# Entry
Amino acid sequence: MIGRTTRRVFGPGLILLLARTGEAIAAEGGESPGIFAGDIGNIIWTLATFLVVVAVLGRFAWGPILSALQKREEFIRQSLEQARDDRLRAEAQLKEYSEQLHRARDEASAIVDEGRRDGEVVKHKIHDDARAEADAMLERAKREIATARDTAVKELYELTAKLSTEVAARVIRKELDAPGHERLIEESIEELAKLRNSG
# Structure
């Protein structure tokens, strides 16, 4: 294969070189020089250079180029075979998926019918469960509201007692110490609680 490519690439160059050689010989014989006229030494050096270039290219360039082309051809061939195999597998999978789809549609119809039958039962159960949950949430909310109300009243008593103590301390221009301050708050809370219970 390399020899065939060599003939294709360098055949015209060799013919051109021989034509130049013939013209050079004719020019030396006294004929009118042609377009490729030159002396015989020039022709020999040109021919030698051409042969060296052909040998170097044959040794170092054509082999790797042809190897790369052959690898490329093999890759394309394998890719085409792989694509054909993938297409066949895809067609088989498509057929299998179509059959599965038909089975799934039949199963879905059966499930829908069963769902309609069970729907009423589930509906009533959900309704009853929701009512029971709502009642439980209502009771929890009432308890939480009562707890929050009691906490708020207690905080209000504490704040009122604190403010009363501060006002009383300012009025009498006397600052209570920490234990006395706490005792006064507790007494105020107890008095407010008595007032609230009596009211």
The longest helix spans residues 40-172. The two ends are 118 Å apart (CA to CA). Residues 2-92 form one domain.
